[in-house]
Specification:
The protein is α/β, with parallel strands linked by helices and 282 residues long. The protein is built from 8 helices and 14 strands. The strands form 3 sheets. Strands 1-14-2-3-4-5 form a 6-stranded mixed beta sheet, covered by helices on one side. A 6-stranded mixed beta sheet has the order 6-7-8-9-13-12. Helix 8 links the parallel strand 8 and strand 9. Bound molecules: fe (ii) ion. Fe (ii) ion binds next to helix 5.
């Protein structure tokens, strides 16, 4: 940790204790975590085939069920996602906060099953999915719910003869990400979207033929103060924290602020977020 980061964190912790002790504490704990921002982004590229014009992708991330986020809240989220009428649904990791302490149940599977996208539902592992011996149970849960795992692998999303590549990496903290392996199916003309739980992998991913990287993990910082910004973000989300980043001429990164919370049950100037991406052929 460098000196600037240390000072920012120390100041941030102090301000959190002082600033979140009154009405703002109530707001950060009880109100903002239940709000939702729907961020709409257009993705335009000459490599996107005409057949995918107006193709709608919804990404949700970091629900951290079991830690101040329950199935009743998740059920409402599922309805909101379905009401957006996505063609494709993507989950970018950290479904439950602590897999070994979570009360696993059919309702969770049913809700994941209820998510509806005609062209498929895909997911990648986050660090909390592998953590707490969650690897197998998360795999089974998503498998039953008709989600396809992208773990250093890819699926070709097809419309007639046209297609693009949707790839996904294993988690960087507790798994073994392999970018080359995830792109093995790709050909030179393929528009390519890569799911990677940790956003800071962008600095490595930019050396590969990837157009769009979709990440989560940062929670946007969860608590953001005016003039200071985020107070704390986890490892591998220290550089790219929230929103859109142009990483190179080719690669654009979008970091989703997630749905739930972890470590501390607060959100402040950092609402839960769904991303809606609409593809356009140029
Ligand atoms: Fe994470």
């Amino acid at each position: 940790m460098n000196r600037r980061t240390f000072l920012k964190r120390s100041l941030g912790s102090l301000l959190t204790l002082l600033g979140l002790s009154g009405g703002s504490y109530f707001y950060a704990r009880e109100i903002e975590p239940s709000l939702l921002t729907i961020t709409e982004e257009s993705i335009t590229s000459s490599q996107i085939p005409n057949a995918f014009n107006q193709f709608k992708i919804v990404q949700f991330s970091d629900t951290h069920l079991g830690f101040h986020y329950n199935l009743e809240q998740f059920e409402k989220l599922v309805s909101k996602i379905n009401n957006l009428e996505p063609d494709l649904i993507l989950f970018t990791g950290d479904l439950v906060d602590e897999p070994n302490n979570y009360h696993w149940n059919n309702k969770l599977i049913q809700l994941l099953q209820k998510l509806n996208a005609p062209e498929g539902k895909f997911w990648i592992y986050g660090n909390h999915d592998h953590g707490g011996y969650g690897t197998d149970i998360l795999y089974e849960t998503f498998e039953i719910a008709d989600f396809t795992l992208l773990q250093n692998s890819a699926s070709r999303i097809q419309r007639g003869d046209a297609s693009f590549i949707l790839a996904g990496l294993d988690d960087a903290m507790l798994g073994n990400p392999n970018i080359s392996q995830s792109l093995e199916e790709r050909t030179d003309s393929d528009f390519t979207i890569l799911l990677a739980h940790e956003p800071d992998l962008a600095d490595t991913i930019k050396d590969y033929p990837v157009d769009i990287q979709l990440s989560g993990h940062s929670h946007g910082g969860q608590v953001r103060l005016p003039f200071i910004g985020d107070l704390y973000t986890p490892a591998y989300a220290e550089k790219y924290v929230q929103g859109k980043y142009t990483i190179s001429d080719k690669l654009t990164l979008y970091v989703n602020s997630g749905i739930g919370t972890t470590r501390l049950p607060y959100r402040f100037f950092c609402r839960p977020e769904l991303h809606v991406f609409t593809l356009h052929s140029s």
